């Protein structure tokens, strides 16, 4: 009964994060750092989305990988449903695929490292999962190779200085991906604070199996 209540709470939190991220991704970050116009490469959704990894890791710590996968699948259903209503089909496919793959990889990495230093499993799980999420989302959304998923976005494919400041040029979506992953790394480190604070509150309820 306790497990059911906690799982429902985790599902509700994951749903909130997915909904919030889908909303906040519409708003660019209007700021400039080291000559880089962040509005060109970042939205506020980049800051809220990594919280999904914290929710997944807390579920995994407390109830194991099977429960964590259920929470991830619930978020996947919500995320894909919202994306098809608010985005182009190609973006919806990319978003859902990247979310599912990244979160499941996070669960696998976390479960393998869970008996090591307390910070290693959540940090490496979220960073490795975020890397896969970023590569999949931006490639499926904008790379010319994946045109079979939907029409290409000309602006995303235009060559431009990397991050708007470097001499080398690349399609704009490359800079978007770099900026997105940089934020995910920073937020992933910050998320160790609430994870560490909650460790003694949300203790494992049962031995976790590597499944």
From TrEMBL:
Coiled-coil stretches noted in the UniProt entry, renumbered to this chain: none
Transmembrane segments: 7-27, 33-55, 67-85, 91-111, 123-149, 181-202
Subcellular location: Cell inner membrane
Residues making up the signal peptide according to the UniProt record: none
Keywords, alphabetical: Cell inner membrane, Cell membrane, Membrane, Transmembrane, Transmembrane helix, Transport
Main location: membrane
InterPro entries given in the database record: YhhQ
Family: Belongs to the vitamin uptake transporter (VUT/ECF) (TC 2.A.88) family. Q precursor transporter subfamily.
Function: Involved in the import of queuosine (Q) precursors, required for Q precursor salvage.
UniProt-recorded name of the protein: Probable queuosine precursor transporter
Source organism: Rhizobium croatiense
Taxonomic lineage from the root: Bacteria, Pseudomonadati, Pseudomonadota, Alphaproteobacteria, Hyphomicrobiales
């Amino acid at each position: 009964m306790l497990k059911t209540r906690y799982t429902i709470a985790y599902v509700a939190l994951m749903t909130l994060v997915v909904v919030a991220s889908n909303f906040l991704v519409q708003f660019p970050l209007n700021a400039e750092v080291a000559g880089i116009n962040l509005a060109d490469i970042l939205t506020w959704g980049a800051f809220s989305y990594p919280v999904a990894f914290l929710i997944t890791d807390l579920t995994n710590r407390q109830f194991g990988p099977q429960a964590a996968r259920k929470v991830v699948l619930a978020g996947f259903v919500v995320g894909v449903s919202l994306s098809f209503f608010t985005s182009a089909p190609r973006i919806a496919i990319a978003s859902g695929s990247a979310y599912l793959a990244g979160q499941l990889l996070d669960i696998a990495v976390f479960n393998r490292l869970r008996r090591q230093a307390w910070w290693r499993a959540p940090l490496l799980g979220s960073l490795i999962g975020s890397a896969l999420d970023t590569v999949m989302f931006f490639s499926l959304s904008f790379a010319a190779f994946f045109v079979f998923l939907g029409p290409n976005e000309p602006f995303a494919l235009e060559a431009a200085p990397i991050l708007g400041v470097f001499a080398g040029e690349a399609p704009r979506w490359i800079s978007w991906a770099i900026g997105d992953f940089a934020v995910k790394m920073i937020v992933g480190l910050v998320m160790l604070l609430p994870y560490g604070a909650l460790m003694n509150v949300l203790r494992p309820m049962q031995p976790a199996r590597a499944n």
